[in-house]
Amino acid sequence: MSPAPLLEVRGVWKEFGDLTVLADVSLSLGTHEVMAVVGPSGSGKSTLLRCINLLEPIDDGEILLDGVDISDPEYEADRARRRIGIVFQSFNLFPHLSVLDNITLAPRKVLKTSGEEAQITAQHLLDRFDLSDKRDEYPDRLSGGQQQRVAIIRALAMSPALMLFDEPTSALDPELVGEVLEVIKTLATEGMTMIVVSHELGFAREVADEVLFMDEGRVVETGPPAQVLVDPATERARRFLSLMAESG
Amino acid sequence: MTEAEASRRGPGISPGRARRLAYQRGQRRRSLLIGAVSTLVVFGVVTLVVVNSPGWPTVRDTFFSWEDFKASFPEILAGFGRNIRIFLIAEVFILIVALMVAIIRSTRSPVLTPLRLAATAYVDLIRGIPTIILLFLLGFGVPALRLQGVPNSQEFWAISTLVISYSAYVAEVYRAGIESVHESQTAAARSLGLSSTQSMRWVVLPQAVRRVIPPLLNDFVALQKDSALLALLGVQEAFRRAQIYVAGTFNFTAYLAAALLFLIFTIPLARFTDYLIRRQRERVGGSSL
Prior knowledge:
The complex is a heterodimer of chains A (248) and B (289). With 248 residues, chain A is of the alpha/beta class. Chain A has 9 helices and 10 strands. Chain B contains 11 helices and no strands.
């Protein structure tokens, strides 16, 4: 691990009313590292990502990006979000915009990139991920896998320093999961720093440098995939893994 | 039906299929017949009752006089041009004012709290006052103040009344549209670094406005009809012209002529609205977004 991590989460707490969703969560991620977050549903994995992207304000703790506390209420959240891309389980493409406009909207409006330049970047990304023939289609004309790949491109078009994936394949038909995982793998090999929340444990083993196992809002176990996903130290993680193995 | 069964459909129709087809044809023929007969009976009875009523000859002469129709029509048609003009001017302002009110009511920024309160009060107040009372209050009240720099023309105040009254309703239509856009859309926009204003402008509003076009058109139909209320302030539109003709001849056919003009305008608009609603329903049905 590099001496100065890109992202550092320190003692984060998040509550919704009486319900504690994140309890003293800490993690650290260096540039070019890939972290997989696993755990049963309701364990706070998605909330963790939404907090890192400042979509949810945290109740206590610190979130440092390049050493700056972006969770500070005084910090301008939009500036941090520009550098952190997130891909949602339900894609959330903009249905009224074509694929191209979905991708170029944020660069044009937020980074004030010229229309032409944004289009060139978008075209380049579409070519790379084999979607250039869908450039002028609207999202409802695409398969789930294609929509999710466009959503990934949309986030990449902002040249983020960090990418967050919130169960990116959970809403997909089984035969479409592969094409999306393939894209994420490509990004991993190219050195993109990422946190991936996923139930695809095989995929997590393959791409992750580190695995975080969460349960009931707490980090239960953390370590290299070969340890956490194969021979976990805690009883809780072991039980989860055997359940996942049973359900295939 | 499995694929194997479907491919068996070939040249010969199975007895079972033939029986079902014959049954469906019979059913269709039966409903057509019932529809035609019941329509004829209902309209026939109504016509008979009206035509045989003791007052019918008088009504026929005072409401359905072809001579009076021809005589009054050119004047009323000229007046109807005024209705269309009033409608168009009012509509433009309504769309703008209502959108502003809706946006103000939909934001949560604390800076806008006084505006938000004012917008809520405006919508509640205006929706509770009959348009006709508002028209008298503004149309006779404000010019009577003889304020410097405030227009005195009754047409100006008549149009203003329509704008003020309809904007309250249309604002609620817009707001329903804004709230129907799922918050995950805002989350996606914000996660890309768009500010809340930018998210509203580029992501939420375009989707909201598209969704409320059919209900907006419904309000247009109502607005076009309500432009006849302006006759009460003496604006020389179609209904007012008809009133003048009736006052001179004691023949009511002129009202019928005015009604006909309104129908020619509103029926196509209403049909178009239905068409849009149908199309939208089909599109929403075909897409998960």
